[in-house]
Design brief:
heterodimer, A: 486 residues, mainly alpha, 19 helices, 75% helix, B: 498 residues, 3-stranded mixed sheet, 4% strand
């Protein structure tokens, strides 16, 4: 079992090295590695004994000194999300970058990013987490520039890099404070140590704000639309689906497991409020966007907002089934958004390659030429808006229900308005795509099916798979810290 | 009693699976597509026949699947769902045949028939939904599946109409969702039960229940086109004729009305709703919508628009029937679900035939169409007379039972005048059409479609209105026969007031 952890954590790094040393084999290596990773993650999730966790000390060094790997159901589900999205986007990237030179540059960075993602999800030490965050920021910014010749893309990538660095530095300052106060950085040890004190509060604020930059919570969001919309489509998919998610995962760990004595309801309400602003403002900006990728990037902002709105609700619920229900829905929404957003970005990428642009007003006729892609975009849209039968619908039902149960009905209003706005911006796209072709557009070649399929796969999964088979998420997940680690 | 989970699922799949296959078909595979459509429709019809028999024998049909803790996806067939399932299945078959003829040689047919099948799948699922949660799922799915159909032509007008449709229905969906979640948090799992479930749960806040009722009815009223939520329906008439038939008779409008019936009878319970005092306002609104729709229909020159306002008016009979306490009114309201469907689909088929064959879209262009297209116009006439309420066409029985029910419940003083006024108005907007069609000299047609067929129009367009018009007469004439809609509705009413 624990060898599975080692495999998941190290395979991406080894693949990165192999792709660097043997560029011509990069396509095959990546495909095989992403398949192995997917199988390993499925095994991890199915074999994770429910409501407890696994851990493994690398090289036999005890945690605190050596590097410890660990996974509980929360991490397990996110590992599965990463592996799934990585698998589909790897397939997609193979056909998206027609130029093999670009692929030689892509694969090592691609797998470096992946190794940062998995290491972040599996490590249980605040300093190791800092290292993975740094690696994540660097490789993500570098990936934004692959295959791009435009100056604005480079500029956005540079800004992304700088803000990522600032975020990591804030996080590092928080880590230093924690170490000065408690003398350890091991998460499982800290869990029982942290108490309410000014130093704890200061380190919580530092850690949180560093991570909030990384997951682009309003008002620290300004870098995201440019970075996510100017990167190549497969990279945008991974950035929007996974990179912001894992930063949020760390925040969850901090707020619900480590700093529980410090996180007050006022703090949680503030977080929820920022999330609510993100939901409304992000949706509104997405509605006004003229380019598809910009729309998708703003949609990420607003969808992340829902996750933050869960925080005050989960905090306010008493321990037990209702809280469990809300927490599971939070995870389900994160997973569902990850899959659907990756599908949306891949669909947009296919459109963009086929039409040569991604302007919404000039999409006319694309529904007839790229039916598979448009179908994928519509299904992804269903999952993003949270309409049935998607997994996000269940999550939104739980969000509304929990906000009523916890007596905070205002979050429900935000959810409803956000849902309608999300429907509005997606319908705008579909309406434009259903319109007949403008006469002046040149005749276009047909799009390769291989490029269109991965998006459809993920979109179907987000809409039907998560809708009808999501109950294991609730069965395995537990909010109270696992027994093993106490 | 044994539980059968398979039949509801198979009924759902019998249109879902052909729909999904049709999506993947190439545009040119016309025969295969037609075959799939018909196989699906006929299979569904046979399965539904089995369901009718089973429910009559009081067998239990239920499929249950847990989606999340406390949220079950439930398909359950009771007498009321069977009524709606058999209506939409039968009319789907007819509409499919009509649509195959109507869309001959037009582009994007795979997409059209794919969504067409999904639309019926959603309708049937909605009819068999066993709790409010499942109902919401299919209600939204229906919205999504019909949007591409309304937008099908792709003209700016069609896309605008579709956007308005989606705006209304999604907003309604949000209201319905809010009400359903709120009720779920107060009252637990909301499995539909004849006689209602809320009356038996102690300690519920009646004010909260009234608000929830308002939310639910407002959400459902959008699709049921209750005033002032009806605005999308006349604008959605830009859709092709088979889609209009689907919207008005088979699926969308009916889904709203059916939902109101479910909420009143099987969630709140008609007696408990009466105690809460929510029926009277709803009944008044329904009565107002009946008159309002008819008045607006008077002044419409566009034929499909006139029919659309007529739907606004006619569907509210169903809501009206649900708000009057007593089995007779229940019968009148519910049977109109079927009767209005059969008659209205005939009218839309005929309107589509005029537009397709002669290019006639407006009432003022209809002079003498009766002589050029006697069969279609005969069907139109039968359905129009039925709408007015002339026996023995089906519409008469709905009004008769509604009137009797109102008298029985002591509401005759205001319901009977509404019924009479509405009949008079129906006559005022239908009879001039009939007069023009049969008695005025034929003018030049705007766009006569000269094709090589021998009859008045293509056979696949000519037969469906004939069949549905005959059906409208049959269900009226043989209203007392076993398994007629009226008899079936009496079965529902006896089970409801047991």
């Amino acid at each position: 079992m624990s060898s599975l952890l080692v495999l998941i954590a190290t395979l991406p790094l080894m693949t990165a090295l192999a792709c660097l040393l043997h560029p011509r084999g990069g396509d095959q290596l990546s495909l095989v590695a992403s398949m192995i990773q997917l199988v390993a993650s499925v095994l991890l999730v199915t074999e994770l004994p429910s409501r407890s966790s696994l851990s493994h000390a690398l090289g036999g060094w005890a945690p605190g000194l050596g590097i410890a790997l660990g996974a509980d159901p929360l991490a397990g589900w996110l590992v599965l999300l990463c592996a799934l999205v990585q698998f589909a986007t790897t397939l997609y990237a193979r056909f998206y970058f027609c130029d093999s030179q670009a692929r030689y540059r892509l694969w090592p960075l691609w797998w470096l990013l992946a190794s940062a993602l998995y290491a972040l999800l599996l490590s249980g030490d605040l300093f190791n987490l800092y290292v993975t965050l740094e690696l994540l920021g660097l490789s993500a910014a570098a990936l934004c520039t692959v295959g791009a010749a435009k100056a604005e893309a480079l500029e956005a990538a540079l800004r992304y890099l700088l803000l990522g660095l600032i975020g990591s530095l804030l996080y590092l300052a928080g880590v230093a404070l924690v170490y000065a106060e408690y003398g350890t950085l091991d998460v499982s040890a800290l869990r029982t140590l942290i108490s309410s004190s000014p130093a704890s509060l200061a380190s919580l604020v530092l850690l949180s704000s560093g991570l909030m930059i990384k997951c682009a919570l309003v008002p620290l969001h300004f870098w995201l639309p440019a970075a996510h919309s100017s990167a190549p489509a497969p990279v945008s998919a991974v950035l929007s689906a996974l990179v912001v998610k894992v930063a949020f995962y760390l925040l969850l760990r901090l707020w619900f497991e480590l700093f529980t004595p410090v996180v007050t309801s006022a703090f949680a309400t503030l977080i929820g409020l920022l999330g609510a602003i993100a939901v409304i403002w992000g949706s509104w900006q997405a509605f006004r966007a003229t380019r598809l990728k910009l729309l998708a990037a703003y949609s990420t902002l607003s969808q992340m907002g829902y996750l933050f709105m869960f925080v005050p609700i989960v905090m306010a619920l008493p321990e037990g089934d209702t809280r469990q229900f809300a927490y599971g829905a939070l995870l389900l929404l994160a997973v569902s958004h990850g899959i659907a957003k990756a599908a949306l970005f891949m669909g947009i990428g296919s459109l963009q390659q086929h039409l040569g642009h991604d302007e919404i007003d000039r999409l006319g006729g694309s529904a007839r030429k790229l039916p598979v892609t448009l179908f994928a975009i519509s299904l992804a849209g269903v999952a993003l808006v949270g309409l049935p039968p998607s997994g996000a619908f269940l999550a939104k039902w739980a969000l509304i229900s929990s906000s009523l149960v916890s007596g905070q009905w205002w979050w429900m209003l935000v959810t409803l308005v956000g849902t309608l706005l999300a429907a509005a911006y997606l319908v705008r796209v579909l309406g434009a795509a259903f319109a007949p072709t403008a006469a002046a557009e040149p005749a276009l070649p047909t799009c390769r099916l291989a490029l269109q399929q991965p998006a459809l796969l993920l979109a179907v999964l987000a809409t039907f798979g998560l809708g009808f088979a999501a109950s294991p998420v609730w069965d395995t997940l537990s909010l109270s810290p696992p027994e093993v680690q106490r | 009693m044994s539980t059968n989970a398979w039949l509801p699922l198979l009924i759902l799949w019998s249109s879902l699976v052909p729909g999904l296959i049709i999506f993947s078909l190439d545009e040119s595979r016309q025969r295969l597509r037609t075959a799939l459509n018909l196989i699906g429709a006929i299979t569904k019809l046979l399965l539904v026949a089995g369901l009718i028999w089973g429910v009559y024998r009081e067998l239990l049909f239920e499929f249950r699947w847990t989606l999340a803790p406390g949220l079950d996806f439930v398909l359950h067939a009771d007498a009321l769902s069977v009524l709606f399932v058999s209506l939409s299945t039968l009319l789907w078959l007819v509409t499919t045949i009509y649509a195959i003829g109507y869309l001959e040689h037009s582009p994007d047919r795979s997409r059209f028939f794919g969504f067409f099948s999904l639309c019926v799948t959603a309708t049937v699922g909605l009819a068999m939904a066993g709790n409010l949660f499942t109902f919401v799922i299919f209600y939204e799915a229906l919205t999504l599946a019909t949007y591409p159909l309304v937008a099908h032509k792709g003209t700016p007008e069609a896309i605008r109409g579709a956007r308005i449709y989606l705006g209304y229905t999604l907003a309604g969906g949000v209201l319905l969702l809010t009400g359903a979640v709120w009720l779920r948090t107060l009252a637990g799992p909301l499995d539909f039960a004849q006689g209602g479930i809320l009356g038996d749960i102690p300690g519920l806040d009646p004010d909260a229940l009234r608000w929830i009722f308002l939310l639910l009815v407002a959400g459902l009223g959008v699709k049921a086109a209750l005033f002032p939520l009806h605005g999308w329906l006349p604008r959605a008439m830009v859709a092709p004729a088979p889609v209009s038939a689907l919207l008005h008779a088979v699926a969308v409008v009916k889904a709203g009305a059916f939902g109101i019936v479910r909420v009143v009878y099987d969630v709140y319970g008609v007696e408990f709703s009466g105690e809460l005092g929510v029926l009277m306002p709803l009944g008044a609104l329904a009565a107002f919508t009946i008159i309002y729709g008819s008045v607006r229909a008077l002044s419409q020159d566009h034929l499909k628009k006139r029919l659309a306002y007529s739907t606004v008016s006619q569907v509210s009979y169903i809501a009206l029937g649900a708000t009057i306490l007593g089995p007779l009114a229940t019968i009148g309201g519910l049977v109109h679900l079927v009767h209005q469907g059969v008659m209205k689909i005939t009218l839309f088929f005929a309107a589509g035939n005029y537009a397709e064959t002669l290019g006639v879209h407006r009432v003022s262009e209809m002079n003498g169409v009766g002589r050029r297209m006697p069969v279609t116009t005969a069907a139109f006439t039968v359905a129009a007379l039925g709408m007015i309420g002339l026996p023995p066409v089906a519409g008469f029985f709905s009004k008769w039972y509604l009137g009797l029910g109102a008298l029985e419940a002591g509401a005759g003083a205001w319901v009977i005048p509404v019924l009479l006024a509405s009949s008079a108005l129906n006559a005022a907007y239908f009879l001039p059409i009939l007069y023009r069609a049969w008695f005025l000299p034929a003018g030049p047609w705007p766009l006569e479609n000269h094709t090589h067929h021998r009859g008045e129009t293509r056979p696949s367009l000519q037969w469906p209105p004939m069949v549905t018009a005959a059906l409208a007469v049959l269900v009226g004439t043989f209203a007392a026969a076993p398994f007629s809609p009226l008899e079936w509705v009496e079965l529902i009413a006896t089970r409801e007031y047991r």
